[in-house]
């Protein structure tokens, strides 16, 4: 079941949360009963219990189709207590969150917050499931509204709900979840973690930047952190290929022609011809072999179309003063181009963002788009979602650790945006070393947005959306639920035992989303700027024949 393939995780309230002794020794844990009264007595004013339910071993839980962005419930859960809380965030707004509390004999003393996707609202119950199998209490917020991923109409003239999506619902939900978790177990939380991709990546970075005490470790995927630039870029990107009647327009059928030629030219640049483009930045792509000799046809690009393709791969710079505005898409992202580049208008992540989020003008016409909107978005950033701060010393200084990852075939959030954030962080901390002490970036060759691959590349590291993209009852990396293969478990080991993550072995299966089909390939992912290097002997699909260098 590819439930979440297109969920596109892009995606202060004044509740007085008790401050938590994060690293205290665990008290004798005494599990309270799974009933409202356990929780109501510790809730601050403005927060109320919506529902408390006991889920039996091997049960399922969620809100089903009513939860527009997460219509699938996690199944095969361990026995747990499920709590739904509503929090009033202003006179005009409120948000909800869900909390899964495994039985006290299964609880490891850890909390795990899970991120959302796109502009969607809804408690991400599905992705709360996996953490419970590993002994985490897990929490997810609905971000203050209920909508599908590409629906931004909820934001129109709704500044408080924008703030809830931007940061407030995540912050408030996690603080309250800590209070409820400790009330339930009668014990302190020892460590708090975060895992999210796309919007989820942005949410995690935002919380680290604004509230460095919230998490001890964060797994940050394909972070859509630069809202003010990125969502405007989605309009610009779409316009490169519009209108469809213009000779410059590249039709859907040619994306795969371009993609196949990219693999033919760029795959071997990294030293191994395996169909996986691992060093797109080293490829000097030559359009000549696919350039039309005569008239346009379905297997070649005209000069006008080649100009368009170059714009898509290049970064976006100001035509006024030349300043950098956004990262372009990478070579090998072509299989996901249909999302932004196949329409008759730019994608909703761009157009609806400008209409409902930025300008509060549902009649704004994307044909009038120009780069001044980036400056406007920088200045106003409605709801404060943009997570562009690199002064994260307070998080580092209290021992916080970050694992960031990004698929190198991502056609939704450009891969280089993670490198941009990482480079800025290195500039801030003064060196790669002082950054790597607490923050490491892992690029995943051949992986698309947050999960999956079209080229058999090892992609699964047990991150949010990955097991649940395959089936509702899976968690971690099926068959490899250990810190060598699961990035969250590697993060836990780094935070709690000081074992810095030197590599993570990613996995793919013979049948894309069926782990029972047998392992297709495993390969180490390396802390940027290192890359996995093939030893030159043995199967390229076996991790032991690769090393980070
Ligand atoms: C909510 O409304 C009350 C009563 O009108 C007002 O006193 C209060 O300041 C408002 N609070 C916010 C956060 O706007
Ligand atoms: C591309 O656009 C066409 C025309 O709107 C549509 O029929 C088709 O389903 C789209 N394909 C993809 C993969 O989005
Ligand atoms: C860009 O768009 C803004 C807002 O629509 C408009 O005021 C401005 O004149 C435009 N600038 C250019 C150079 O077209
Ligand atoms: C990050 O910095 C490295 C080293 O200076 C550079 O090669 C790379 O192009 C930068 N990446 C981005 C996305 O700017």
Automatic annotation (TrEMBL):
UniProt keyword Protein transport present: no
Keywords: Calcium, Disulfide bond, Hydrolase, Metal-binding, Serine esterase, Signal
Pfam families, sorted: Tannase (PF07519)
Glycoprotein listed as a keyword: no
GO molecular function: feruloyl esterase activity; metal ion binding
Domain of life according to the entry: Eukaryota
Signal peptide: 1-17
EC number: 3.1.1.-
Similarity remark: Belongs to the tannase family.
Name of the protein in question: Carboxylic ester hydrolase
Organism of provenance: Trichoderma gamsii
């Amino acid at each position: 079941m590819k439930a979440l393939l297109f969920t596109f995780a892009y995606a202060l309230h004044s509740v007085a949360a008790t401050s938590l002794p994060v690293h205290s020794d665990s008290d004798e844990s005494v599990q309270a009963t799974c009933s409202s009264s356990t929780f109501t007595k510790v809730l601050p004013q403005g927060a109320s219990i919506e529902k408390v339910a006991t889920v039996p071993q091997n049960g399922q839980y969620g809100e089903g189709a009513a939860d527009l962005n997460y219509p699938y419930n996690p199944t095969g859960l361990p026995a747990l207590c499920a709590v739904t809380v509503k929090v009033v965030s202003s006179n005009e707004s409120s948000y909800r969150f869900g909390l899964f509390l495994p039985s006290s004999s299964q609880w490891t003393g850890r909390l795990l917050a899970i991120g959302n996707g796109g502009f969607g609202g809804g408690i991400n119950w599905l992705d709360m499931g996996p953490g419970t199998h590993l002994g985490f209490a897990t929490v997810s917020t609905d971000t203050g509204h209920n909508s599908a991923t590409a629906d931004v109409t909820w934001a129109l003239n709704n500044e408080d709900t924008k703030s809830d999506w931007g940061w407030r619902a995540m912050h408030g939900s996690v603080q309250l979840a800590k209070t409820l978790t400790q009330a339930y177990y009668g014990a302190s939380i020892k460590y708090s973690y975060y895992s999210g991709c796309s919007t989820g990546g942005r949410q995690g970075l935002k919380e680290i930047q604004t509230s460095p005490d919230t998490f001890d470790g964060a797994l940050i995927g394909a972070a859509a952190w630069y809202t003010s630039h990125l969502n405007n870029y989605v309009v610009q990107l779409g316009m490169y290929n519009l209108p469809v009647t213009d000779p410059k327009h590249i039709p859907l059928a040619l994306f795969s022609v371009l993609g196949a030629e990219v693999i033919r030219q760029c795959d071997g640049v990294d030293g191994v011809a395996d169909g996986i483009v691992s060093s797109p930045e080293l490829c000097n792509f030559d359009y000549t072999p696919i350039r039309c000799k005569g008239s346009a046809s379905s297997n070649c690009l005209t000069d006008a179309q080649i100009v368009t393709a170059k714009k898509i791969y290049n970064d976006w710079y100001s035509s006024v003063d030349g300043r950098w505005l956004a990262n372009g898409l990478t070579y090998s992202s072509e299989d996901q181009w249909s999302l932004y580049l196949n329409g008759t208008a730019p994608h909703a992540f761009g157009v609806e963002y400008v209409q409902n989020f930025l300008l509060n003008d549902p009649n704004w016409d994307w044909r009038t788009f120009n780069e001044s909107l980036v400056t406007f978005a920088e200045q106003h950033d409605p709801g404060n979602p943009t997570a562009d701060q690199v002064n994260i010393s307070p998080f580092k200084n209290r021992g916080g650790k970050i694992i960031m990852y990004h698929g190198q075939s991502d056609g939704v959030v450009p891969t280089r945006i993670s490198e941009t954030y990482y480079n800025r962080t290195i500039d801030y901390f003064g060196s790669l070393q002082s950054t790597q002490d607490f923050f490491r970036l892992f690029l995943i060759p051949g992986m698309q947005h947050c999960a999956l691959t079209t080229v058999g590349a090892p992609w699964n590291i047990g991150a949010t959306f990955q097991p649940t993209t395959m089936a509702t009852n899976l968690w971690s990396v099926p068959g490899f639920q250990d810190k060598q293969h699961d990035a969250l478990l590697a993060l836990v080991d780094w935070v709690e035992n000081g074992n810095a993550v030197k590599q993570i072995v990613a996995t793919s299966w013979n049948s894309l989303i069926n782990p029972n089909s047998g392992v297709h390939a495993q390969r180490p992912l390396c802390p940027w700027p290192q890359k996995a290097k093939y030893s030159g002997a043995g199967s390229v699909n076996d991790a032991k024949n690769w090393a980070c260098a």
